[in-house]
Task: structure prediction
Amino acid sequence: MVNESFLAQLRAREYGYLDENKHVYLDHTGAGLPARRQLTAHTARIMGNAFGNPHSENPTAAASDVLVANARQAILRHFNADPREYAVVFTPNATGAIRLVGEAYPFAERNSLVLTADNHNSVNGLREYAARSGNADTRYVPLDGPDLRIADKTLDEVLAAGKGDNGGLFAFPAQSNFTGVQHPLAWIGHAQAQGYDVLLDAAAFVPTNPLNLSVVRPDFTAVSWYKVFGYPTGIGTLIARREALKRLRRPWFSGGTIQVASAAGGWHRLAHDETAFEDGTLDFLSIPDVEVGLDWIRSIGTDTVHDHVTGLTHHLLDGLRTLRHTNGQPMARIYGPPNTEGRGATVSLNLLDSQGDVIDERVVSRDSSALGISLRTGCFCNPGVGEAAFSIGSSALRGLELTRDGTVDDYLALLGLPSGGAVRVSVGLSSNRADVDAFLDFAADAYRDRVPVADGLKPRLRC
Result:
């Protein structure tokens, strides 16, 4: 059971800047928020000692080496990952971790790529690496039903059809950044049994859910730490099984990745461990803050965070269902699961006018921002779910592209859409019931009994 008194004290002490500045922050899927003690720890560390570039043998470099090594160990402990089986590769973000796999994956040898339709564009972009190999086909697993999930049977069919002679790469998100749907982690072992390597995008999942890598064993797992605890930004991690890491073939080398290279001889030898995948000098002043953040989460408990945000999500979903116009028409259309079963703390929706038409999400963004409410609007870099949510068929999309001179509104008109995206509300550790109520009250006050209007907004869609 969640200790609400403890969480209220936590909010006041560590996240007091929200209420002090009258912020209603509901974009935790976009970025988490840092506790004050995390920032204090960072300042105390860098003001209290000297730390140098780790690529050296001197005392300040050695001090940095120790802290970076400690952060690697802390990450493995957090995910219950055996260091003999897993390696931690530091990247700029989850996108950097995914790109690292894509550019180095031997598609020519393991010649297939299977993606779920529910994927962030950072994962969708893997298909460009597969296409350049000349051998790999990319296949998508379609979404099924109003909850925008994927049926196990459909996944089986696509995996079987896409499997090459040596398997291939299967990539999916543990949690949708659009709908909050949590896809079964059992898919990992299932795909591996069919010869696939598995890339798990855990960026939206791990901020509020435990991930035990001794139970599920994806070959590659991508994480961004600012999404988990707000600070530091610019630090991500690829957690890779060592045997899978050996299958990757880097297309280049750089400073920090090699043991030795020759300009005259035209040869090089990569480092023998995970540092072969870390380009240049690591952010050695910020990487130790990952350990600080993990210690912070451990002091609270991931289960406590999970239960807290699940309760807030339940309250949000209930509130959205009860929003009604005077004529009885619903005020909100929710995308994805209608309850908290098998879903995370991310809820996407459109607000509706009294005639049942979508209120442009850009209007909602403008009006909510004016009241100090931070939401996310658009399609959240997840076109597959957006196309399914808005019932855009493949026949309508095939060959359709936005021309250089065309506007986003032109594109939407071609598709017959009234709006370019949705409104996303997401909660986290620092959220409370008052934040959720602030959004529900805003929606009711701003749009109840609203009739269709033309707002004349300039297009501002980013996918």
Summary: Residues 459-463 have pLDDT under 50 and may be disordered. Residues 39-299 form a domain with the Aspartate Aminotransferase; domain 2 fold (CATH 3.40.640.10).
